[in-house]
Amino acid sequence: MIIPRTIRQFKERIDHKAGPHGELFEPYDGDEVVSLDCETTSLNVKEGEILSIGAVKIRGQKVVTSERLDIKLKPPKSLTEDSIKIHKIRAADLMDGVEMDEALEQVLAFVGNRPVLGYYVNYDIRMLDKFLRPRYGFGLPGKAIELSHVYHDIIKWRSIGGNADLRFDTISRNLDIPMLERHTALGDAITVALMYVRLKYGETPNI
Amino acid sequence: MPSSFNMTNMPFSLLTEAEQVLLRNSLDIGYYQRGETVLAAGDVPEGVYVILKGVVSENDADGGEVDHVFVHYTAEDYFGGWSAIKGRAIHNFLAEEETICHILPTKTLLDLCAENSRFADYFQQSLSAKTEIRSKLGGDQDMAEFMLAQIKDGVIREPLIVEQGSSIDAATRLMREKRADCMLVKRGNRYGMVTGTDLLDAIVIDGFPLETDVAEIASYRLITTASGDYLFNALITMTQQHIERVVVMDDQQLTGVVELTDVLSYFSSHSHVIGLRIERADTIDALRDAAAGLSDLVRAVVGQGVKARFVMDLIAAMNGRIIAKLFDLIIPPDMQPHVCLVVMGSEGRGEQIMKTDQDNGLIFRDGLIWPDMHKTLRQFSDTLISFGFPECPGNIMVSNPDWVKSIGDWTQQLSDWSRDCDGTAQMNLAIAVDAHPVAGNQALFKTSRNWFMRHLQSNKVFFAHFAKVALEFDTPLSFFGNLKEKGQLDVKKGGIFPIVHGIRTLALEYRVLETNTFKRIEALVELGQIKEKHGRELCEALALFIQVRLGQQVIRAEQDGIDQTPNTIDLALLDKMERDMLRDALHIVKGFKKHLALRYHLAG
After folding, report:
1. What is the rounded CA–CA span in Å between residue B266 and residue B281?
2. Which end of chain A is least crowded, N or C, by CB within 10 Å?
3. B5, B29, B108: best mutation site toward chain A, by most A Cβ within 10 Å?
4. Do B60 and B90 meet the contact criterion of CB atoms below 8 Å apart?
5. How many Cβ atoms sit within 10 Å of the Cβ of residue B401?
């Protein structure tokens, strides 16, 4: 049974508030957001394995690329020919990757209780949670910000009655944000971060 | 990462691999809305901003008033480097469009500068290094040179001396003949000076008869100086005494006369003096010495910021004089009326600045018998080489019998080339049609040229072939209209040649007799073959190419003595505005090439 994330987070907060990771469950009062992206072997959370994780902080109007996370993991067994074609990540590229335990620790330390931004962000969060829960007993504690929702909230007034096109490429084109490195976790995270900053601080895009 | 950052651009390409990693790891990305101030004057800058996308203008801040925009920065340009090093922004930086910038934090910038001195030089170049280069070439140096200049051979004129007893009539005629405007009269062992004005006054005002002895009217109170004294002392003396010449005496011996005009022209960049020295040289050695002063002259004139086009005129005149003088010294006087020396190529167009290869040829009267011709001409070429005019790599020199022809053969050769469409023939022809007579009997040259021009009119196919060569090299502009090359650019192929050759073709077609490209353009505008606006643009573009090239040639010549790559423009040495101007000029070239392609049906 799928339990809604908010309920789960509520329960986890009660369970772990006094635990060693208690500070993760304090309400977040800073102005930073973490843009996060994972490259995985499958789009199905149950089957998927994480290949790499990229994340950058957003502080106000700035994408702080000097503070970032760029983790490559050891090649999982499920790395197949099909996914290689999409990500262009071969087993050889992951030879110097880290173990999952270490990766998760870095992610938790980097993200903390900050809101997590992404495109189709729930997928990335569920993917991470899948590995976090067995080890820590909780998932990512922060709020999730879905880029396509932010985008939709802003442009919906311009497309009444029509369906807004929320595809990644379309959004990036409409916002006129250069796609820095498509299909690398960090590249996507930076692109999403730029789109978010553009939406939050820029003029409403003309569509 | 972000690996989107372009490391191949200057100055980042100067960094080592490890330094590039450090730079990548320190970069942030900033987002700025249209109209947002990225950095305000007086602020502490975060670092250097490298534009990923957008446009930023740098302006003079003054309480929100209408500001003066200094420069616009676009993708891949960087700004704020100087402000970051200084710790405070000097100007306002305003996002003219939505802008995304990479930000290299000040701390990292300083670390990189500390580690990599070339990188540091580049960042500081915008102010210190550039001003240093400028001041090295600048006018101050000339002033200093003038202040230290001594009274030496260059400015001392050989005096015209007459013995006591010469009549006013004879003296005047002698002065006229020697083109002098003063003379010294020897009375016993004293000298007196007589100027043109003295002679005039004596006859008209005092009513002396023409037979009067000039010794009667000479002034014996001579103002003297010694060679080795500072030139400015002579100038001061002249000013104090209200006179125009001083006599140079060394150990009671008369050495010569220094004239005010010579001193003044020495002051104004020496050009007149070199001209005089060339004119007065009566041996090859004296001429060689005079020619050696030419490079200094170029440097001084360029340093004073004189426009390249006028420098070219001046140098063409000087080179022409040197060559003509050498012709007088080497070619036997009885042969001089029967031959005509022409200079060709850039020399012929009068577009040479730094001494480059000699391109010259000789046209002689049909049936001339001159057994020593080739030996003498070989000597002529060798002497020019010793003057610092290098040998022509294509061997287009009078020492090569192929370029020494009778009128008939010369003309025949030109028309053969115009019928032949291969590369060598076209190139030779391009060089030959820029020929300009410098010495000897000019009628020989004109006869040949006029015949050839008439002959070409009946050959329409020729022009299409000839024009095509102008389109041979690509204009180095990218699809989006930016400079294609990042590091170095061959300005001759990219900019100068298409204009020069295209204009040459049009000039031939409309029988314009000028050889200088600027004058050809003006003549074509006059004839209505080029629109006035286009003509002006082409002149400006060409002048810019030449100016930029000259600027870098002077620097290179100073560093290495010899300029190995005379046509290379190092884009990194240009500032933003110069680069923009260069880009605009290349757009003009592009447009002109399109015009030629349509004009001569060369499309496709």
Report:
1. 18
2. N
3. B29
4. no
5. 12
Condensed to tens digits (0 to 9), the pLDDT of residues B90-119 reads 778 888 888 888 898 888 888 888 888 777
Between the CA atoms of B572, B29, A190 and A158, what dihedral angle is there, to the nearest 10 degrees?
-110
Dump the DSSP string for B49-100: EEEEES-EEEE--STTSPPPEEEEE-TT-EE-HHHHHHSS-SSEEEESS-EE
CA separation for the pair A206, A174 (Å, rounded): 7
Whole-number Å distance between alpha carbons of B30 and B52: 10
How close B570 gets to chain A, by Cα (Å)?
30
- Whether the Cβ atoms of residue B24 and residue B5 lie closer than 8 Å to each other: yes
Q: What angle do CA A15, A17, A21 make, to 5 degrees?
A: 105
Name the closest residue on chain A to residue B31, using Cα atoms: A61
Angstrom distance (rounded) from CA B477 to CA B458: 37
Q: With a threshold of 0.85, tell me whether the complex ipTM lies above it.
A: no
Cα-only R_g, chain A:
17
pLDDT greater at residue B234 or residue B592: B592
Reported pTM: 0.49
Contact between residue B443 and residue B401 where contact means Cβ atoms under 8 Å apart: no
Tokens representing B356?
Answer: 């480059």
The amino acid that residue B280 corresponds to is R
Tens-digit pLDDT profile for residues A107-131: 999 998 899 999 999 899 999 999 9
Kindly report the three-state secondary structure assignment for every residue of A135-155. HHCCCCCCCEEEHHHHHHHHH
The neighbour count for residue B112, using CB atoms within 10 Å, is 24
Instruction: State how far residue B23 is from chain A, nearest Cα, in angstroms.
Output: 9
Query: In sequence order, what are the residues at sequence separation of 6 or more whose Cβ sits closer than 8 angstroms to the Cβ of residue A187?
Result: A54, A179, A180, A181, B1, B2, B4
Interface test with A, best of B31, B33, B39, B104 (most A CBs within 10 A): B31
Most confident of A187-191, B262-266, B450-454, B556-560: A187-191
Of B180, B167, B247, B176, whose CA–CA distance to B215 is shortest?
B167
**CA atoms within 13 Å, Cβ hemisphere of B466:** 26
Q: State residue B301's pLDDT score.
A: 66
* Chain A residues with CB-CB distance to B105 below 8 A: 66
Buried b / exposed e over B354-392, threshold 16 CB at 10 Å, is: bbbbbbbbbbbbeeeebeebeeebbbbbebbbebebeeb
Chain A contact for B32 (CB, 8 A cutoff): yes
- Please calculate the CA angle A28-A33-A38 and round it to the nearest 5 degrees: 120
More confident position, B88 or B576: B88
